[in-house]
């Protein structure tokens, strides 16, 4: 299993960051962000359902101790998860209209952030990981479900040579096996299934 990389951007004060860690609130928010793309509203929010058209509302007893907050999930095409979180400084602030207005404006930059994160991660991955033509060929045939023996017959080489190229591809992609290498190769745009050589 690959380690999930997380990018976090927040305006929380140190006191609230400490409260988030102590109450494991960050785990609730990160779990939400890993499986959702809709921004989340949480914390001590007045009339959360009234403002529901912008957000999903995360209702949890632990979260109600925090000031009104919202988190925007960010997902790159190669599996990186990011969160951008904002909160009001005071949890008992009676006028939250400016908070909701800011939250709605921040959402307009989400597509831009997704594009930039994808550009940065995919470009960086391709720059640091150059598969040879043979590694790409063997990995592409592996996406078609071919065994090392079958690939060796297709490419007119030995089975050991195919295994060597698949292992090199795994190492370059930071994968622990060929299935993970296939996934990373496809997600990063380095290999394309159904493109036999």
From TrEMBL:
Any one of the GO BP annotations: regulation of DNA-templated transcription
Entries under PANTHER family matching the protein: DNA-BINDING TRANSCRIPTIONAL ACTIVATOR DEVR_DOSR
GO MF term set: DNA binding
Protein name: HTH luxR-type domain-containing protein
Coiled-coil region(s): none
Originating species: Photobacterium proteolyticum
The keyword Protein biosynthesis belongs to this UniProt entry's keyword annotation: no
Transcription listed as a keyword: yes
Family annotation (SUPFAM superfamilies): C-terminal effector domain of the bipartite response regulators, Pheromone-binding domain of LuxR-like quorum-sensing transcription factors
Location of the HTH luxR-type domain: 124-189
Keywords noted in UniProt: DNA-binding, Transcription, Transcription regulation
InterPro entries the record matches: Sig_transdc_resp-reg_C-effctor, TF_LuxR_autoind-bd_dom_sf, Tscrpt_reg_LuxR_C, WH-like_DNA-bd_sf
């Amino acid at each position: 299993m690959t380690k999930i990389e997380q990018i976090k951007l927040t305006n929380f004060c140190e006191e609230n960051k400490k409260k988030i860690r102590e109450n494991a609130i960050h785990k609730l928010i990160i779990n939400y962000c890993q499986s959702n793309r809709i921004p989340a509203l949480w914390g001590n929010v007045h009339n959360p359902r009234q403002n529901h058209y912008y957000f999903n509302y995360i209702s949890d007893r632990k979260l109600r101790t925090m000031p009104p907050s919202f988190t925007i999930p960010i997902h790159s095409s190669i599996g990186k998860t990011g969160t951008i979180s904002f909160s009001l400084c005071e949890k008992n602030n009676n006028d939250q209209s400016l908070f909701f207005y800011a939250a709605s404006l921040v959402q307009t930059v989400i597509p831009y952030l997704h594009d930039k994160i994808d550009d940065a991660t995919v470009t960086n991955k391709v720059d640091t990981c150059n598969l040879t033509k043979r590694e790409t060929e063997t990995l592409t045939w592996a996406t078609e479900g071919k065994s090392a023996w079958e690939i060796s017959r297709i490419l007119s080489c030995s089975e050991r040579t195919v295994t060597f190229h698949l292992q090199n591809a795994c190492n370059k992609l930071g994968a622990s096996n060929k299935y993970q290498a296939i996934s990373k190769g496809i997600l990063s745009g380095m290999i394309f299934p159904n493109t036999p050589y």
